[in-house]
Amino acid sequence: MVDRSFADLSLAALYDSLNPWGPGDDFYAGLVRSAPSVLDIGCGTGRLLARCRELGHAGRLTGLEPAAAMLVQARRREPRVEWVLGDLRSHSWGGEFDLVTMTGHAFQELIGDEELRTALRAVRTALAPGGRFVFDTRNPTARAWETWTPDRIHEAADPEGAVAWMWHEVVHPVQGDRVTFTSTYEGVRWDSPQVTTSTLRFLDTHGLRSFLAEAGLMIEEQYGDWGRGQVTQASPELITVARSAP
């Protein structure tokens, strides 16, 4: 897990090293490669869509990302993808995509009820008939935030080989389904530690189903891990596949 705010170019350059390609990426890549048109919301450094383009996806691939520093990485990586700076409040599409994704727990950055409702309505509008919305969130009953402690240090290196170290710490009491934490970065590129503060929302299955239904989306499938296992209290993920409600 890593903070996704990355407004700074030096932090954005560390993102892929801190988040190496894994089973979640393979899961999404399979979906993207089978969909003619794809919108990836919160696309980050663009590696998912770039990889699929490199592997021969010939359809429309669009990445939407609010952090300009992250899009710098994406545009350098693959110019044959449509990279868009902004979010679902500043950009909208009407029935243009067979698949809409939100990877890397980006869905959890939708904190407020109205912010979440606005985003889901925009997703519903962007979907073509029969299209799917697929996203992942951390399962709140697994209480992942309890492992976000300063003794768990992650090492990374940017493309030029500069090494950095990162750790998380929950700094405020957990309030309902919201967790606020800091991410601290130390490395040779900075004279002092770089600290960001983030809040994530941990919705349970009932909450997800309720917000999706309100936006005209219904859950078709839900998995507890990247191997498509069933959801249990111990499952680390809530991986949701939703379609437009009839």
Low-pLDDT parts are none
- According to CATH, what is the class of the largest domain? Alpha Beta
- The figure for the number of domains is 2
Per the CATH scheme, the topology name of the largest domain is Rossmann fold
The portion of residues forming beta strands comes to 25-35%
Largest sheet: spatial strand order: 3-2-1-4-5-11-10
Number of separate strands: 11
Question: What is the CA-based Rg, rounded?
Answer: 18 Å
Shape: globular
The rounded distance between the terminal residues' Cα atoms is 36 Å
Note the total helix count: 7
Q: Helix- and strand-based class? A: alpha/beta
Amount of helix: 10-25%
Q: H/E series, N to C? A: HHHEHEHEEHEEEEEHEE
Report the sheet with the most strands, covering strand number, pairing sense and barrel closure.
7 strands, mixed
In CATH terms, the superfamily of the largest domain is: Vaccinia Virus protein VP39
Mean pLDDT figure: 94
Assign the CATH architecture of the largest domain.
Answer: 3-Layer(aba) Sandwich
Structural summary, described in words:
The chain has 246 residues and is an alpha/beta fold. The chain folds into 2 domains: 175 residues, Vaccinia Virus protein VP39 (Rossmann fold, 3-Layer(aba) Sandwich), CATH 3.40.50.150; 59 residues. It is 25% helix and 32% strand. The protein is built from 7 helices and 11 strands. A 7-stranded mixed sheet has the order 3-2-1-4-5-11-10, with helices on both faces. A 4-stranded antiparallel sheet has the order 6-7-8-9. Strand 1, helix 4 and strand 2 form a beta-alpha-beta unit. The chain starts with 8 loop residues before the first helix and ends with a strand.
